[in-house]
From TrEMBL:
Record-linked InterPro entries: CAP_dom (IPR014044), CAP_sf (IPR035940), CRISP-related (IPR001283), V5_allergen-like (IPR002413)
UniProt-recorded name of the protein: SCP domain-containing protein
Organism: Amborella trichopoda
Domain called SCP: residue spans: 27-158
Pfam families the record matches: CAP
Keywords attached to this entry: Pathogenesis-related protein, Plant defense, Signal
Transmembrane regions listed in the UniProt entry: none
Record's signal peptide: 1-18
Function of the protein: Probably involved in the defense reaction of plants against pathogens.
Signal listed as a keyword: yes
Superkingdom in the source lineage: Eukaryota
Length: 162
């Protein structure tokens, strides 16, 4: 089976716990949180703290998208990263890795993306962001949708993430 991922950027002041299975368990939380905190540590930024209320918001929004699995941002006051993957076999660690590997496109000296996108990465490492909550669902189509909500949000124009 060919799997394709489509990532949508967290832009401006926008930017989840898997609702299939028990991702509120330490394993589910850690799968979302640990790789993001590793990326933050690499650039000297304080770790994120898991926020259950943000995870509930992410879960609720992901469920709203269950029928169409669309990568449409919630337009809320939070930072938001979204992920869509073909099929249901996407591990949380693969989802976060898709965002974190965007580091290769970020030029810190020029504060620009040199490639398709790096705004998922910059939201993850945004220095003023302190809390995160995430959700992963399987849509009616059988595809995977994941959402992470960040507070305070990042990706402010003309500002550096760290």
């Amino acid at each position: 089976m060919v799997l394709m991922a489509l990532l949508v950027a967290a832009m401006g002041i926008h930017a989840g716990v898997a609702s299939n299975g028990n991702s509120t368990s330490p394993v589910g939380v850690g799968a979302f949180l640990d790789p993001q905190n590793t990326a933050r540590a690499e650039v000297g930024v304080a770790p994120l703290v898991w926020e259950p209320r943000l995870a509930e918001f992410a879960r609720g929004y992901a469920r709203q998208r269950r029928t169409d699995c669309a990568l449409m941002h919630s337009e809320g006051p939070l930072g938001e990263n979204m992920f869509w993957g073909s099929g249901r076999n996407w591990d949380i660690t693969d989802i976060v890795a898709a965002w974190v590997t965007q580091k290769q496109y970020y030029d810190h000296n020029l504060n620009v993306c040199n490639g398709p996108d790096c705004t998922h990465y910059t939201q993850i490492v945004w220095r003023n962001t302190e809390r995160v909550g995430c959700a992963k669902i399987i849509c009616d189509s059988g595809d995977t949708l994941a959402v992470c909500e960040y507070s305070p949000p990042g990706n402010y124009i003309n500002s550096r993430p760290y």
